[in-house]
Each structure stands twice: as C-alpha cells, then as structure tokens.
Write a structure and sequence with these properties.
Elements (H helix, E strand, L loop, with lengths): L2 H11 L5 E11 L2 E9 L4 E6 L7 E2 L2 E3 L1 H11 L7 E7 L7 H12 L4 E5 L6 H7 L16 H9 L5
Length: about 160
Amino acid sequence: MGKTTALRAVAGRLKRRRLGGFYTEEIREAGVRRGFRAVALDGRDFTMAHVGIRGRSQVGKYGVDVSVVDDLARTTLDPRDAHVYLVDEIGKMECLSPRFVAAMRALLDAGRPVVATVAQRGEGFIAEVKRRPDVECWQVTTTNREGIPERVVQWLKPRLT
C-alpha cells in the first residue's frame, strides 16, 4: 500500500461523508509508465500528464495539461462543497497551476479537514504547505503504511463533528 492506495482506503471508509478532491493513477502502456490520470472522487477522470503531451509545462519526461489541473481545482476543491477533502497530491505537476495553488490555499485557510499527499521534496507551495502551523505531516513508510488509513480516519473524527 502506497500513499494513493492509503488515500483511496480512507475514501472508502468515509463513503457516508460528502467528499471533495481527487487521486492520481499511473497510465501504463505495455507495462511502462507513460503518464498520470487524475480521478475526481465523483468518478470523472482526466489525463493530467503524459509523455505524448508537448508544451511549456513539463515535469521530467511528462507534459502536464495544466488546464486539467485548473479544472480539478475549480470542480473538486471548493471549500463549500464537502465535509472532508482528499487530495493526491500536492506535487510539482499540480503546482504548475496557479488556480490549484490558490484553491488549496483557500481550502486550508477555510479550516476544512484536508488529507493530502505531499511531495517529499519541493519548493514553493510544497514547502509552504509543510511549514503551515495548522498542518500535520506523517511520512508513509513500508512499516506504517497498512495502518495509515485507520490513523487518518481517527484523526478526522473530531474534525467531522
């Protein structure tokens, strides 16, 4: 179980709550990772990054469709829409979108419960999120990853009353 799998397990345990956000999946072609798909918690999915996307917005070998990240921010991160937000992830690709960064800031400032995976390394907004006094960071490791979904659910309980 990795970060995304843990986040999806949390979503499964919270299915009676109104959830906002999204998770990401690898796009594999012939067994090789070729890109990333973003899946909104309402089931819509979008190709967010792919080796076949060309343009100014690149992270490594992947071209990023910033309009997809903008749309995710607009449609899944409104602080008025859900009880809890699950976001996978706050990373380099997502932070190419000023709309995503602004939406995440607004969501965090609104005090809504947010569970997000955050890139281990990164500057700018990634570092800003980790420095916030109202953010609690947990590292997912091979030894603790099985228990992370239950730990997250327990952490959320007093925040969802």
